[in-house]
Amino acid sequence: MKSTYIPVPPSSSSFPSFKRPSILGSYGQNEQGEWIEDPSSYLKTFDARHWFRQSLNKKPLDLNRGKVILKDENHFAREGITSLLEWLRRNPQTNCPDFVLFRGVLTMLMKTPYERREPWCYSVVKYRDTIYLKAEETEYARNQKDRISPFIQKTMEWGYKFEHILSQTSDSNVDNVINTNEEYDSVYRTELEGMAIIYGAEMDAIFKSQKPEVNVEDFVEFKTSKEFQNDRNYQNFVKYKVLKWWCQSFLVGITTIVCGFRDDDGFVRRIEDFSVRDIPKLEGVTWKPNVCMGFLKNLLKTLKNDIILTPNIVYNVSFDPPGSNINTYETDLDISHVLPSWYTENTTKS
User: How big is the CA angle at 338 (ends 333 and 343), to the nearest 5 degrees?
Assistant: First the structure.
């Protein structure tokens, strides 16, 4: 098994050409995690004017209210990119993209120059001039999942609860059961240095509006974070957390992130909105957007032009920090490991 190594060099190059992402369409997943064509009932609305008038010091948000049913992550890992492929099967593209993947993959790749702990691994295959990337579970991720503490599990539930509460304007539905299988997903298309990329992304909500159509800038991202107790808390926040926030939101054209700062008991007494454009300017930020996007550009170009050359061969592409190289090699896996037969048979006929 011959391996090829791609270095992860520090980059100080200028910001690459990145076309403003456009929305091609949407799909969703219901309470059972089943694919649905019309996700409009799962599109939440955020009334910013209402929430930023609230005095949370007097009446904090209690993220413990109600019940949260968390996703079966094993199910979604097995599914791979099939939900996005189902949308593509129903909506054939006249202009063949260079890459098809999820936003989460792009986010992980963008963070790589600054990643010191979390590895990643993808199965990659070229089919009919398009390269598809499917995330694989790493040993690190399995260990993290197996060792998850009750408190960390609770913080995950709090995140979903915060999203649910902020999509209401009263507390009448706060105690409802939240099923996190339910999703509203948008499909985006962009170009990075001339490479066409189609990617799916689960969206939190849109700003309350009277407009009938949904545009890129209408979406808002919800986040929670522990209230700062000391300078170290803040430094970790700007060094790690907002890096991921910026990558996620920049990729889909989101302009605003709304964060609820919670205590260890699950009470939010402060809500703050962050301009995605201004996040890199926060005091203490040491990462650079041009490094993230420059690395993403270089890696995708290398995969496209030098590595993923043989159609229908599944490659393994991985990164294991704190190493400085990305490892790639051909596998013996069938193409169906990434692309199910119902997809390849359908596109062959089209």
Answer: 125
Is there a contact between 46 and 206 (Cβ–Cβ < 8 Å)?
yes
Tokens at 18, concatenated: 């990145």
User: Into how many domains does the chain fold?
Assistant: 1
Residues whose CB is less than 8 angstroms from the CB of residue 10 and which lie 6 or more positions away in sequence, other chains included: 113, 291
- What tokens does 36 get? 């649905």
pLDDT at 3: 82
Do 76 and 186 touch, CB atoms closer than 8 A? no
- Over the stretch 330-341, which tens digit does the pLDDT of each residue have? 999 999 999 999
Q: How confident is the model over 37-75, as pLDDT tens digits?
A: 999 999 999 999 999 999 998 999 999 998 998 876 655
- Half-sphere exposure in the Cβ direction for 315 (13 Å, CA): 25
- Do 42 and 182 touch, CB atoms closer than 8 A? yes
C-alpha–C-alpha distance, residues 84 and 198, integer Å: 9
Residue 194 domain boundaries: 3-349
pTM: 0.95
β-sheet bridge partners, residue 206: 45, 219
Give the closest residue to 216 by CA, choosing from 203, 232, 226, 197: 203
